[in-house]
């Protein structure tokens, strides 16, 4: 039997997952709110059609009658997407939210879907998706999490159903993000300060001596580039971390600061790229590309 999946969101994750699912014989329908954008919509719709996906004209058209609907939007749009999909959903369908949001936001998504009678599953993507694609490790939670893992893992996915309740997978993901996104922000500032003072080789040597199991030169080379490309989305994720922390009675100040650093660095990189599109930004903020 051919699996049928609807994707809400045609960004990095949606595009990559759609391509690889289609290669596995999955019938994929996609919708993104940017499909309606006068400047970008036509090109995005054409990209989706070229992959072999069915292009829906709205949320309802994407969702109606699909066994599995997956929301792959941005953290700040997760609840809105669920509300827009809910009227077209019905019992017997499953809605998956894979967005990097707090357990309370996952609960808010579930509440938005509750009147429809649809089953809800949370996914937490636990590594960058660019290289593994659908084989990226995913933690899943909810009563139907294990059943869908059993259906999708044979297609090449790596879904681990970790809980019957909502919140465990998302909390695990966001606690990890404190470390990963925090390190990315640290590397952004290390690149700038170390270059300014001419001490990067000495700092990297010291870090390697203290933590020899980590390739600090590679980390420094890669992480600022990730922030330049994905900083806005990751800032939204870190604000979800701040929500999670505050709801636990803890300070969200560090998470908020990490969010601001990602956001400002990405904005400076985008501005520099727009000014000089042929010259990719350097990890160092010594160039005008990364004045924040």
Give keywords.
292 residues, alpha/beta, Rossmann fold, N-(1-d-carboxylethyl)-l-norvaline Dehydrogenase, domain 2, 2 domains, eight-stranded mixed β-sheet, 10 helices, 52% helix, disordered C terminus, oxidoreductase
Order of H and E elements: EHEHEHEHEHEEHEHHHH
Low-confidence stretches: 279-292
What's the mean pLDDT score?
Answer: 93
The outline comes out as: globular
**Structural classification:** alpha/beta
The CATH architecture designation of the largest domain is 3-Layer(aba) Sandwich
> Percent of residues in helical segments?
40-55%
Q: Major beta sheet, specifics?
A: 8 strands, mixed
Number of domains: 2
Could you name the CATH topology of the largest domain?
A: Rossmann fold
- CATH superfamily placement of the largest domain: NAD(P)-binding Rossmann-like Domain
The Cα radius of gyration reads 20 Å
- Distance linking N and C termini: 52 Å
Question: Which percent band covers the strand fraction?
Answer: 5-15%
Number of continuous helical runs: 10
Organism: Prosthecodimorpha hirschii
InterPro entries: 6-PGluconate_DH-like_C_sf (IPR008927), 6PGD_dom2 (IPR013328), 6PGDH_NADP-bd (IPR006115), HIBADH-related (IPR015815), HIBADH-related_NP60_sf (IPR051265), NAD(P)-bd_dom_sf (IPR036291), Pgluconate_DH_NAD-bd_C (IPR015814)
Keywords: Oxidoreductase
Region (Disordered): 271-292
